[in-house]
């Protein structure tokens, strides 16, 4: 299989059509933080795929009469035409054109909405970019029905990566590894691959409740955050630690070593934040309520012999992770103890999902 994804597209003549996909968000267990051009990770990462937090995208396409190499598209987001999203999509099309040359041959109407509230502090770039990439691959498939299923999903992940790095982990599989790692078969810096090992029953249907501490815009964009890893005094050791952590988490996921899993996942989250605290300029991305929640999680875990743990994105919100068999108790703990630390008492229950779904 060619890994550069520039296979000539025989281009059947397709005048117009419509494709639609739903793709989820994902939450990293071992974090990706630091990248090099073109959107390649400095270290491998692994994530849980979510289910309830997702984006639905429909792309209607019609062949253009002019062939000027320009891109022609409209975006309708949550029922409204969104001019503000255009520059991002324009840039995405520029980046991917060499792999999907048909993008300048059609006019696209992109209609999209998210299952989670717009200003919830949940990044929509992973689900948004992966949904659009799946749609583009469905169009490629109509132009070239010969492409294999493996090629289809890998290239979708490859395109999504060029839109937003972590989006490549939102395409296929309940656990996804992105970044070449010697112990993960077929892993690549170019796209995400489903974690193919069997996982212990305790990790099946794993739960994730997102505690919305801060629904505002992120204080530091991930683009800026990744850049701060260039020349960071601890960058090299952080990148090799992530490689080691992938090896470790692989064994924990297989054997069901949940205590070790918890320690690794929480340490990864705090390490990501420590990188931001020790960069130049430095940032604190947690809020007082983030710390209140973390302390309550630790106390609850000790008092109840529970297996709940937390992870964090590059922001103040907390992802509370727990096995399905604790669901009922943890939900009442969230309602009575944790929701008061969330903005407008807002949290979202989610769980392990399986990736993109084609919508008919
Ligand atoms: O995909 P980006 O560029 O928004 O970076 C995401 C980085 C983290 O969410 C903080 C970690 C990760 O691996 O998803």
Q: What bound compounds does this protein have? A: (3R)-3-hydroxy-3-methyl-5-(phosphonooxy)pentanoic acid
- Bin the helical content: 25-40%
Can you count the helices?
Answer: 8
| Alpha-carbon Rg, integer | 20 Å
Characterize the largest beta sheet: strand count, sense, and whether it forms a barrel. 8 strands, mixed
| Uncertain residue segments | none
Distance between the termini: 29 Å
Oligomer: single chain
In short:
With 360 residues, the protein is α+β, with helices and mostly antiparallel strands.
What do these coordinates show?
This protein has 8 helices and 14 strands. The mean pLDDT is about 95. The two termini are about 30 Å apart. By secondary structure, it is α+β, with helices and mostly antiparallel strands. It is globular, with a radius of gyration of 20 Å. Helix 2 packs across helix 3 and helix 5 (about 235-255) packs antiparallel against helix 6. The chain binds (3R)-3-hydroxy-3-methyl-5-(phosphonooxy)pentanoic acid. The site of (3R)-3-hydroxy-3-methyl-5-(phosphonooxy)pentanoic acid has 14 residues, from loops. (3R)-3-hydroxy-3-methyl-5-(phosphonooxy)pentanoic acid (PMV) binds near residues 45 and 313.
What are the salient characteristics of this protein?
binds (3R)-3-hydroxy-3-methyl-5-(phosphonooxy)pentanoic acid, eight-stranded mixed beta sheet, 23% strand, 8 helices, alpha+beta, four-stranded antiparallel beta sheet, 360 residues, 34% helix
